[in-house]
Amino acid sequence: MKAKIANSKCLNILGDNDLFSSREILTGVLKSWLKNLGYYSIFTALPAILTSLAQEVQADEPRKPEVSVAGETAKPLVGLNNSRRTPEFLQRQSNFVLPHQTGKYNNIISALAGGDDCPGNAIPAGTYTAAAPFTDSGDTTGANNTVRALDGGYYFSYSAEGADHIYSFTLTGVGQNPQIQVSSTSTTYRPLIYILDSRTGGGCPAGTNNLVSNWIGRPSLSSPQGTATLYLSRFLPLNVPLYLFVDSRDSGVNGSGPYTLRMQDVGIAPAPAPPTRTSFDFDGDGRSDISVFRPSNGVWYLNRSTQGLSAAPFGLSNDKLVPADYDGDGRTDVAVYRDGTWYLQRSQAGLIGVSFGTAEDIPVPADFTGDGRAELAVYRGGVWYTLDLQNNQSNAVQFGLSTDKPVAADYDGDGRADYAVYRDGIWYLLRSTQGFAAIQFGLPTDKLVPADYDGDGKTDVAVFRPSNGFWYVRQSISGFVSIFFGLATDLPVPADYDGDYRADIAVFRPSNGTWYRTGNHFTSIFPAVAFGEATDKPVPNAFVP
Predict the structure, then answer these.
(1) Quick check: 65 and 528 in contact, CB under 8 A?
(2) Which residues contact 48 (CB under 8 A, 6 or more apart)?
(3) Exposed, middle or buried by CB within 10 Å (0-12, 13-18, 19+), for 18?
């Protein structure tokens, strides 16, 4: 298939046959844009709007009420099962209530010490012995208090009120005397060390002052100028991501200080590479942004997590949304697909139009080459056609049937999107590194919501079932979970809204224009956000078949 690249200075995004400049295009849409903007009031000056098609328009912040997650008549959020058995899809899991926690994700404070926030610093891969242990040092003074207590159930709990540092690691094996030691030379600091399991209780929690129940083993508390020791052979699982906390039982002067970490007789797996791009991240801060496209006026409304609110007129009411990072700058680009032509407003490389496909094709942009840039791609009758904008090279791959639903994503974690289709409850994957796989998971009427829910860099097979409001997720590391979250009329919008490298279960409710989402690996509910109208298209729903 031959691609045609249009004159980027004269693209007609309005859909007429004539060609116009960017200034003429925006002048033409400005009047209807302002009229239909709804409750988003524009305050950016008119000259700034007209300077460029890429100019974004700031808006007042919309209301953000606390609203029921499941709806007035729906049941509360229930159903998380972290066992490694594979339950029946229709079997409801054990009930639980999710406490609200405010999420936060900060940068690592030191290259040599443990991370101040989850998931912490990764312990380098290797085999560490008593003669050649892994060692590190740090100082928790000024660090956050990520965990305030370890919940031991009905009878007891451990206080963890001090500042903490976090290390992440995965054990591949243990020797004769595997252990972790943390010592301090401080006359006041009393280190407390413990380990959290990624498979249960939300893994490594976001934010501060969390009460956690997924600790394993027995915490070890040191006296000042002493050593806390964890003996690992009895309780730690292999090939499971774990989180070591260097904490303290006390707050104040006894709750932080310098420490030295030592690990021996353990094998550590290589840490999974964090994703280079986050889907639907329009400001490049590593967090997906709440965003909608309004067909009535062709405007994208973006609630960017760092750069704030903006509105961008780009598209027609019947355009297909194809947001992706086409220029590799780490920011999602506003883009639409119209009858075989791609219109891309790239955040760095600018506006371009490319003829690639037909009106009947299904657009499926993704990074199939692993270069950090999404390629143009369409699915047509069982054939995948791709175009690399970097070298103008096209490719065609036969994989699927005409009635299949395309679900391209990186299922093997090699940084390249894989060709994949869904057919009557079966996922067929042509993985670029691990090869072919067929997975039976779901019903023909389910909504397909593949994403990386456990943060291992691999897309997980997942479905949302409107008939009962349940999400069923087959995590590649953390196993199967089922969660009741949503109504039959909700639109699923899974994405990484809190920047912890794990997709959050989320829905957009057209009836009230409100977004509801979980966080902290399904163990928290974030405040509902009113952003959009009933007829808006939520951008993170763009590729849900």
Answers:
(1) yes
(2) 55, 57
(3) exposed
